[in-house]
Design goal:
With about 260 residues, this protein is an alpha/beta fold. It has nine helices and 13 strands. Helices cover about 30% and strands about 25% of the residues. The strands form four sheets. A seven-stranded mixed sheet has the order 7-8-4-3-11-12-13, with helices on both faces. The chain has a two-stranded antiparallel sheet with strand order 1-2. The longest helix is centred in the middle third of the chain and has 13 residues.
Length: about 260
Amino acid sequence: MIPTEGVMGKTMALFLPRKTKDYVLSGRLMDSFVLIDYDNVPYQFRRSGLADLARRVNAVLAPLVPGADSIFIRLYGGWYDSSGLTREGTRITQEIGQSFPLIELKNGRIHSRTSCEIASALIDCPVDIFQFTFRKRSGMRSPLISAKPQNCVSVQNCTVSAVARWSRRGCPEPGCPATQHDAFTYHEQKLVDTLLCCDLLGLAGRSPAPPVSVVSDDDDFAPALLMAARLGATVHLVEMRATKGRVYGNLFGRYKVKVVNL
């Protein structure tokens, strides 16, 4: 553990994995990294808690990485706003402190140890915290295209078209100067996907490279997964809705990216 200066001067403790020279990719000693796109995880996998999610992921990956005795899980999300840790970031951090590390015993001896942390910095530069990764924006994300839903109970009074007009121009009432930026706000995550991709490639570039698994259904990670595999790393993709394996199955197979379902 190392103390670092975090957002708003708060002291944070970050867990650092073993140095590269300690990696052994055969026998009983091996580090394995699991990068989880947390906001992409469906509610049915999150509602039972982080420990259960970690056990599910470990169970799926165990046959693929049979020698892993130290498993490092990183959770990617918009953990910081302008004031520091968000409410969700604080909750997740507290749950990690209460639930981890997970110790698996076999025949009375420690078989594996699973650690968990929020990804708030590059894995190779843990003291440089990325702040403001959860931001409030005015307006609407993008223009909407409307279609009358067939199961609407009041087609004549349906407000779908009005919502679409709000997203394109502003208030649908004639003469009203209000725009979408006056009426709507939303939150967005920044740097999160890029941070995961950078960590994936950073781990793949180590010598020797540890096994790395990405847990996400987001197609945006496909190029980074292929590049990590091309660098020679053992790369796994854990899907939760089984979509990318079908779309990019040929590419993943060619680059030897193993796709499994949670």
